[in-house]
């Protein structure tokens, strides 16, 4: 059966903050989970240009992806982050839905007055259980997910304070703010990676294999793992499971574009 919603042509901007092989992997994973054509998902590689490829008003939604090498807490790419910030503020003011994933979630929290801190001791790498908050039962998207569900994670930055007026939607044992939305406008941040299946995670870990080796020497921590015992690829693989409910989130977001989110 053909999904009639899929036949509606969309234009979604994906802001990518990567300079490695994961760039294309992230794009493909998001395109597949959202059931989009390549002509509907437009990538803006922030390291190639500080200006979006097309005017913001031509897009029906904006996504901000993850980043293996950069952290909002460090603000180590200021020009690029300021360029994204400007676009997000314009989109939010115009009512264009915005979704931030992992790094994107951290950036949205920062932009609107929240606080992000690095805490490698509480980092999550692998598959973790997410618990929705009570208020999430009235949220357009999270109300369609189970109270508890599994999701793929890969981060050491954490949102430690939400923007004023933000709605807290989900938590995990190690990271309290797994999801939030602003009380006004269509803007969501999710700490977990809804674009990743179990196989996607394994592919990503394999791509980052050299980083695992590098971690042993200089303590570098990326969203692929760390140097504190989690850098063994086989051990990581054993702890990964499927997370179908989390994967549904991107499609739920897509199907509500153009509707009232809450």
What is this entry, summarized?
With 262 residues, this protein is of the alpha/beta class.
Question: Could you explain the architecture of this structure?
Answer:
With 262 residues, the protein is an alpha/beta fold. The protein has two domains: 9-196 and 244-255, Rossmann fold; 200-235, no CATH class. It is 29% helix and 21% strand. The protein is built from seven helices and eleven strands. The strands form two sheets. The protein has a nine-stranded mixed β-sheet, with helices on both faces. The chain starts with 11 loop residues before the first strand and ends in a 7-residue tail after the last helix.
Layout of secondary structure:
Blueprint: E1 12-16, H1 22-33, E2 41-45, E3 61-64, H2 78-93, E4 98-101, H3 103-111, E5 115-118, E6 124-132, E7 148-155, E8 157-161, E9 167-171, E10 179-181, E11 187-190, H4 198-207, H5 209-218, H6 233-238, H7 244-255
Parallel strand pairs: 1-2, 1-3, 3-4, 4-11
Antiparallel strand pairs: 5-8, 6-7, 6-9, 9-10, 10-11
Keyphrases for this structure?
262 residues, alpha/beta, Rossmann fold, 2 domains, nine-stranded mixed beta sheet, two-stranded antiparallel sheet, 7 helices
CATH-defined architecture of the largest domain: 3-Layer(aba) Sandwich
Q: What's the overall geometry? A: globular
What is the percentage of strand-forming residues? 15-25%
Order of strands across the main sheet? 2-1-3-4-11-10-9-6-7
Supply Rg: 17 Å
The total of beta strands comes to 11
Number of helices: 7
For the record, the CATH class of the largest domain is Alpha Beta
Largest sheet: 9 strands, mixed
Structurally, the number of domains stands at 2
Strand-and-helix sequence, N→C?
Answer: EHEEHEHEEEEEEEHHHH
C-alpha end-to-end distance:
29 Å
Mean pLDDT: 88
CATH topology group of the largest domain: Rossmann fold
- Supply the CATH superfamily name of the largest domain: Class I glutamine amidotransferase (GATase) domain
InterPro entries: ChyE-like, Class_I_gatase-like, GATASE
Pfam families: GATase
Keywords: Glutamine amidotransferase, Transferase
Protein name: Putative Glutamine amidotransferase
């Amino acid at each position: 059966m053909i999904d009639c919603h899929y036949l509606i042509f969309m234009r979604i901007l994906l802001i990518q903050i990567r300079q490695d092989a994961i760039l294309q992997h992230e794009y493909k994973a998001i395109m597949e989970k959202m059931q989009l054509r390549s002509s509907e998902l437009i990538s803006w590689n922030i390291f190639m240009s500080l200006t979006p490829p097309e005017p913001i008003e031509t897009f029906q939604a904006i996504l901000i992806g993850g980043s293996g090498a950069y952290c909002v807490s460090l603000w180590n790419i200021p020009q690029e982050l300021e360029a994204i910030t400007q676009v997000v503020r314009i989109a939010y003011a115009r009512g264009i839905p915005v979704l931030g994933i992992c790094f994107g979630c951290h950036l949205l929290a920062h932009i609107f007055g929240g606080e992000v801190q690095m805490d490698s001791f509480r980092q999550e790498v692998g598959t973790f259980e997410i618990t929705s908050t009570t208020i999430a039962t009235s949220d357009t998207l999270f109300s369609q997910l189970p109270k508890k569900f599994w999701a793929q994670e890969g981060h050491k930055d954490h949102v430690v304070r939400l923007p004023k007026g933000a709605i807290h939607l989900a938590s995990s044992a190690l990271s309290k703010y797994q999801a939030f939305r602003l009380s006004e406008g269509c803007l969501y941040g999710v700490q977990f990676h809804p674009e990743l299946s179990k196989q996607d995670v394994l592919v990503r870990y394999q791509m980052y294999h050299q980083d695992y080796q590098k971690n042993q020497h200089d303590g570098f921590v990326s969203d692929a793992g760390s140097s504190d015992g989690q850098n063994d690829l086989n051990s990581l693989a054993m702890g990964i499971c499927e997370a179908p409910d989390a994967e549904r989130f991107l499609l739920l977001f897509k199907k509500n574009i153009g509707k009232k989110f809450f």
